[in-house]
Amino acid sequence: MRAGSVKFESRSWEEMDSFGFVRFPVEHLWETKRDLLRENARAQARVTNRKDISDISDRAIRDLVARCRAEGIAVAVVWAPESPWLRGLYCPCAHGRVEYYTQTLVDEVGVTVFPAPTHFAEEDFVDGYHLTPDGAAKYSRWFADAHLRPWLAKVRE
After folding, report:
1. d(C-alpha 136, C-alpha 127), whole Å
2. Half-sphere exposure of 92 (CA within 13 A, CB side)
3. In this predicted model, what pLDDT tens digit does every residue of 1-13 receive, in sequence order?
4. CA atoms lying within 13 Å on the CB side of residue 54
5. Nearest in space to 57 (alpha carbons), one of 49, 65, 69
6. What percent of the chain stands above pLDDT 90?
7. Res 138: pLDDT
8. Residue 131: what are its φ and ψ, rounded to 5°?
9. Fewer CB near the terminus (10 Å): N or C of the chain?
10. What is the DSSP string of 101-146?
């Protein structure tokens, strides 16, 4: 079993394209791995339910935005898509903290923040946070049409 695990983990590096993208291996995902990924999602939700955005994460985002701006690179923050199941694991206070932090980034850092979609189905996800190939295509089209194209047109002005 170890050899399969190592092969699964190194696959990401071996199959990464020049943009850093690796297609999630849905067809090779065995049930134990899927269960592990879902348990990782549950654990992350438990942390998110109890804690604010960490100072380290906040500093990393602010530093990255500052560096991009210093280099003349337009920058925006994108909240990643999550399945209805995963979003349902968050308590109302966690949703509130994310909304508060989003507004902080807009007000204090002056960055555009694109929200995660909330209209995607559970079937668009492998485990709550990894999109299926069809889900990724759907997300890419939605993101480009709803956010990226209008933002790029505005940035180019």
Report:
1. 13
2. 0
3. 444 444 445 666 7
4. 5
5. 65
6. 55
7. 95
8. -75, 145
9. C
10. HHHHIIIII--EEEPPPS---GGGBSSSSSBPHHHHHHHHHHHIII
Quote the CA–CA distance of 46 and 40 in Å, as a whole number.
10
Please, are residues 77 and 114 in contact by the beta-carbon 8 Å criterion?
yes
Q: Which of 66, 148, 82 is nearest to 121 (CA)?
A: 82
> What is the reported pTM?
0.75
Tokens matching residue 78:
């994108």
Contact yes or no for 74/110 (Cβ under 8 A) = no
What DSSP designation does 121 have? Answer: -
The tokens for 65 are 């935005």
Q: How far is CA 37 from the centre of its chain?
A: 15
| Spatial distance between the Cα atoms of 38 and 45, rounded to a whole number of angstroms | 11
Length of the chain in terms of residues written: 157
Which residues have a Cβ under 8 Å from the Cβ of 79 and sit 6 or more positions away?
A: 98, 102, 113, 114, 115, 116
Tokens 């092969």 identify what position?
7
